[in-house]
Amino acid sequence: MQHDLQFADGVLARIHARGGKQFDERAYLFVLAGIEYLQSRLDVRRHVSGAELAWACRDLALERFGLLARTVLDCWGVQGTADIGQIVFALVGTGLLSTQPGDKVEDFVGVYEFESAFDASYEVKGARG
Q: Which pLDDT does position 122 carry in this prediction?
């Protein structure tokens, strides 16, 4: 029995039919989980910015995958915050998410660098200098 989330039949095909960079299905599901992760931490559910979502995805990746977070995302084709934006707008294009006026894919560009956000975020606890 498989316990992983999956898209309903045809949803991923609709996403890929829209063109652009294709990501592993798990990347799209992860970004959706990132939205829920962020919303669960807010006092009131609301529209979130690209930067807020990018940071939430970083936090969720570190929580779920630890030191392998960047490697897992890379395996799914996600190599920077701009890729998170591409995923969000692909989901918008299929009607799974919505935007507000002024939202644009560029809101996700350069929010942080994956190398420093993931690799430099861990301290070795108990290390003696």
A: 60
